[in-house]
Amino acid sequence: MSDRSIHSHGGGVSDGDGGRVVGALVGFVRTLRAAGVGADHERAQNMVRAAAVLGAAEPGDLYWAGRLTLCASPDDLARYDRCFAAYFGGAWPGRAPAVPPTVTITRHTVSADGSQGREAGEAEPMAVAATDAEYLRRRDVAALSAAERAEVHRMLALLRAGRARRTFRRFAPSHRGALDERRTVREALRRGGEIALLRRRAHRERPRAVALLIDVSGSMAPYADTLLRFAHAMVRSEPRATEVFSVGTRLTRLTAEMRHRDAGLAMAAVSAAIPDWSGGTRLGEELKEFLASHHGRGAIVVIASDGWERGDATLLGAQMARLSRLAHRVIWVNPHKGHAGYEPLTAGMRAALPYLDDFVAGHSLAAYEELAGRLADA
């Protein structure tokens, strides 16, 4: 998506501010997609065109420009409202925006000979806080202020991620699929030998199970709360196919606490349940306990840790080797991997690296959105 797509439809953004405005709107579309709204490229283009035509000087104009172009079903409307409030700083139609930056929109006219000109005095302020939200998506959560972190947490609560499907050998009745001869014949016998319906069957499918192990040791303190909120968003997306554990000096199952729909209540319950906040890390021992409970078999296992292992790194390596054989996929999330020049030099990371399918960053909202996409595609 580029500035040309705006200029070519009779309205435009001034050259100095065009990239800023378009980048802000594209960031909003990404937020909608993460929340489950099917805002594809064509709809995004339509929103940019509508915003350019309207000028979007008022929050209400921008709200309706997006709602009429990006939403395709009644289910999208509530998600759109939540995302608009979070992304644009609570700027609902009829409400004043929260001191947003000012971007200039300049209208263009097309003369009879087809040339394009600029109307004098037509510059209008476009009140949008979206650039701040896009900036926050890339910021390291450890460097955020309390207010900025709260905004990131609010956007994480809106995250709705898909989940890869697991196909089983057993069949189940289906509207589509192969002909189920036995059920079809039984149905015909019940009707006196007349075949009225063709019964079909397909292999059973379920969401792929995901187990998240979140390191809550002292070295992970700047990231643990945000990672737990990401885990809460995953539980809300697939409550029956997601398990969450904290790891530190002991393994603690947090799945029940994570099932509160409200993120604040869930985090309060999690805080009370974890007995080893900001302690040490014994990943090898805790991974051994995790595998003994058969939680990782056939699942996508996500370990979020910086790899500072205080226990036996050899034990961690042995358990990682075992995990790689049992799990469908092993993903290690290290917040420091998002920093320039990072190298996995800790004993824990060196022991784990040979057995990982993915080694990803976990320091920002954008990194968590990328992780959610991996869980949907794995």
Descriptive tags:
378 residues; 3 domains; 13 strands; flat
Question: Strands, helices and their partners?
Answer:
Blueprint: H1 4-7, E1 11-13, H2 15-34, H3 41-54, H4 59-70, H5 74-87, E2 102-110, E3 116-118, E4 124-127, H6 130-138, H7 146-157, E5 165-174, E6 178-179, H8 181-190, E7 200-207, E8 210-215, H9 221-237, E9 242-247, E10 251-253, H10 255-258, H11 263-273, H12 283-292, E11 300-304, H13 313-326, E12 329-334, H14 347-352, E13 358-361, H15 365-377
Parallel strand pairs: 8-9, 8-11, 11-12, 12-13
Antiparallel strand pairs: 1-2, 2-3, 2-4, 5-7, 6-7, 9-10
Helix pairs in contact: 2-6, 3-4, 7-9, 12-13
Indicate the overall shape.
flat
Main beta sheet strand tally, sense and closure: 6 strands, mixed
Provide the gyration radius in Å.
25 Å
Number of strands: 13
The protein's oligomeric status is: single chain
The DSSP helix count reads: 15
Helical residue percent?
40-55%
**What's the CATH topology name of the largest domain?**
Rossmann fold
Measure the end-to-end span: 28 Å
Note the beta-strand portion. 15-25%
Give the overall pLDDT as a whole number: 81
* Structural class determined from secondary elements: alpha/beta
Query: Would you list the SSEs in sequence order as H and E?
Result: HEHHHHEEEHHEEHEEHEEHHHEHEHEH
- Low-pLDDT runs of 5+ residues are 1-16, 90-128
How many domains would you count in the coordinates?
Answer: 3
CATH homologous superfamily designation of the largest domain: von Willebrand factor, type A domain
The CATH C-level name of the largest domain is: Alpha Beta
